[in-house]
Structure to design on (431 residues):
């Protein structure tokens, strides 16, 4: 019985939600350890599509307990809306099935306002964030001004701390129109009421998970975003504000490194990115458009069109080095069904010099020219394929080239959004 991490191997939206949902029934706990409602994880079954943002993707399995770890930044309004949305679809998220760490930081309305202000207007550094207040909430955490769920248990303290923060923010950002819509009285009244409604879910998850480990319960750690958006290893500054690689788990869930026994790297058969920042294999031609259309590449959280390109093996190898994936899950292979030719990026040149390394500096990343290896397309619909052997030979050659370059076995291939549209190539990685 192993604990498993599911982590994005590219720039997010690889299909982590689908994989977590498929595996969750075998796990006692599904745990989010970083990010917030910038994440949008889609789960499709029984002809219905669900989008999860803060709720872990284990919520559809009645025997799985879902934990929002201390490393997550939680917008109480967004989480309540998500819980209500699920209730309308007939799924009750009771306090025993959703636990929130009392050390998790709270996103307050002013964090979102600051995030959106920084992203708007001329002369500012635009990252293309989701505008959800994620960056400012992590800034508040790191600068020791944040508020956590445990603070909300003492109403007077909570109120005083919000008032003090609000005063400090007005001194800096008092002119913002959006802030005027949120006078301190409204922030206090609505935030305290929202947090109060979540308090029945709040626990010290360190002790819950320690006891679970003692009892040898199984844990699945659900990453949000991905390693190329990681604040340390991603394409800085075009990144999110947390450690979305697997090493974020220990700090963001409060478990020791030994608790993470297997790591599944989730990777699309091509590449997408939403928001700004370097993307060496981005396609600006018809093929990029075809991938966007066939893959419905529009953000689950913001609806923004995703930028599309070929699979970048230099970047994938780099994220593999950081995470040491036990196995790769290759998602959305069906999206490439109609292409005459498919390409893999197997190297970079920078100013004519070849390299196999993913550079740290933005200026280098922006000058990267990809070196491609071309493969014939399979031009066969894959939606109905359920066995690896039944894949067209061209598709298998493409997958094997990925596996060989990365040096990591492909254990799962996904050929459609539905739970059923999944090929387990090496089932033993998922037992
Ligand atoms: P996540 O953020 O990593 O959970 O990924 P998202 O849910 O944001 O984006 C993945 C999108 O691709 C969702 O719309 C999924 O329903 C869809 N999807 C997942 N796997 C497949 C697949 O194998 N084929 C196709 N066509 N769609 C898929
Ligand atoms: P999931 O979990 C794709 C991107 C944003 C922006 C950058 C910073 O669904 O894969 P932020 O709001 O986090 O400060 O934005 O990160 N981003 C994502 N891109 N998938 C995500 O999550 C993302 N979460 C944030 O587009 O470029
Ligand atoms: Mg997503």
């Amino acid at each position: 019985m192993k604990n498993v991490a599911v982590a994005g191997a590219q720039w997010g939206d690889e299909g982590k939600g689908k994989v977590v949902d498929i595996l969750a029934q075998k796990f006692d706990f599904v745990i989010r350890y970083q990010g917030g409602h910038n994440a949008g994880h889609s789960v499709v079954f029984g002809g219905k599509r669900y989008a999860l943002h803060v709720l872990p993707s284990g919520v559809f399995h009645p025997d799985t307990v879902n934990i929002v770890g201390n490393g997550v930044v939680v917008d109480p309004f967004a989480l309540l809306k998500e819980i209500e949305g699920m209730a309308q679809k007939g799924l009750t998220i009771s306090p025993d099935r959703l636990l929130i760490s009392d050390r998790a930081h709270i996103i307050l309305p002013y964090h979102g306002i600051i995030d959106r202000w920084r992203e708007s207007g001329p002369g500012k550094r635009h990252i293309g964030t989701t505008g959800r207040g994620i960056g400012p909430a992590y800034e508040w955490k790191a600068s020791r001004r944040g508020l956590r769920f445990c603070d909300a248990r003492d109403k007077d303290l909570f109120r005083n701390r919000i008032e003090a923060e609000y005063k400090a923010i007005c001194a800096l950002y008092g002119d913002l129109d959006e802030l005027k819509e949120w006078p301190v009285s409204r922030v206090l009244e609505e935030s305290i009421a929202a947090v109060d409604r979540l308090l029945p879910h709040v626990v010290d998850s360190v002790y819950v998970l320690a006891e679970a480990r003692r009892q040898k319960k199984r844990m699945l750690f659900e990453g949000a975003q991905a390693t190329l958006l990681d604040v340390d290893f991603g394409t800085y500054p075009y990144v999110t504000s947390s450690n979305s690689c697997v090493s974020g788990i220990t700090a963001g869930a409060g478990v020791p490194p030994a608790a993470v026994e297997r790591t599944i790297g989730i990777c699309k058969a091509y590449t997408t990115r939403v928001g700004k920042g370097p993307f060496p294999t981005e396609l600006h031609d018809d093929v990029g458009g075809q991938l966007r259309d066939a893959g419905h590449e529009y953000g689950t959280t913001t609806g923004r069109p995703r930028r599309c390109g070929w699979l970048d093996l230099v970047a994938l190898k780099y994220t593999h080095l950081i995470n040491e994936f036990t196995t790769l899950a290759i998602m959305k292979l069906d999206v490439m069904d109609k292409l005459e030719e498919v390409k893999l990026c197997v190297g970079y040149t920078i100013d004519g010099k070849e390299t196999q390394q993913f550079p740290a500096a933005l200026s280098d990343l922006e000058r990267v020219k990809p070196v491609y290896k071309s493969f014939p397309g399979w031009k066969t619909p894959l939606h109905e394929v359920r066995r690896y052997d039944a894949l067209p030979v061209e598709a298998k050659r493409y997958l094997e080239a990925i596996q060989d370059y990365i040096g990591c076995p492909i254990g799962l291939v996904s050929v459609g959004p539905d739970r059923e549209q999944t090929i387990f190539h090496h089932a033993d990685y998922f037992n």
Q: What stands out?
A: The domain at 4-101+202-262 is CATH 3.40.440.10 (Adenylosuccinate Synthetase; Chain A, domain 1). Residues 8, 12-18, 40-42, 44, 295-296, 300, 331-332, 334-335, 414-417 surround guanosine-5'-diphosphate (ligand 1) (CB under 6 Å).
